[in-house]
Amino acid sequence: MKEEGLPLDRANPARTIAARAARCLDWLPIVLALGIIWRRRWWRFLIGGLNRPLIFLAIFAWNLGSPAAPAAGSYLGFLIPGLVVMAAVSASYADLVNWFTLRRTYYRILDEYLLAPISNASLLAGYILGAAGKGFATALAVFLAAHLFVEGFHIAPLFFLQLFVVCLTFACLAVAVAMVAGGDKDTLLFTNLIVFPMTFFCGTFFPVERLPGFLKLGSWFLPLTAATYNLRGLALTGASNLSWLGQSLGWLGAFYLLAYYLFKLRRED
Description:
Layout: H1 13-23, H2 28-40, H3 42-64, E1 69-70, H4 75-106, H5 110-114, H6 120-146, E2 150-151, H7 157-180, H8 184-201, H9 213-219, H10 225-237, H11 242-268
Parallel strand pairs: 1-2
């Protein structure tokens, strides 16, 4: 499907400009539609998103015998930013990859969505922003709940930026995976082999430096490692590492381009 811009109406250029500006917001109805769905089921998503991180946190807190520990210098303070990242990845990735995969391979109705008279970029942006917003809200709920166990975290604006970049990155990955998966079993296999191990080898529970040689080297090339370390630094000290933030933005750009390319191929198929 070829995307065409609106021709300039020379008799009324202001009208053309207004119409082009409205096209820039084509993605907004998709985000609002997803928001309506999630608003009706918010308690399910919230419980599902909080369940695993809080179980991890409670078990570690009870066994370490340090409830209400200070963030700096404690293992719980080290752990919580990793759990926030896990929650962000899970909530941004899981629902979106299943949504696209089931509609493409099982219900076979994705083509009806792809026939919408909006550009590939707007359609893609709507779903990615909707899924990332859900992941961001879930991760913030985990971060707030963690204050029951640990005190003294810094609240820095870049913390929220870095967290949203993580959510956007894995929402893009979800679209890319869904465009090539042959069914829900393929997405489950990819999730179990790639995404789930990544959440453990990117400095979530233990420093990457303690991993064996080849795992330590490989972990620094994973898309989640730099984001996890930057979030931890921001939460514990309030300071950001711009190099890690730049790496996260690079991964976001790479996954977006991959998702856009595969999405475009699927739409033209």
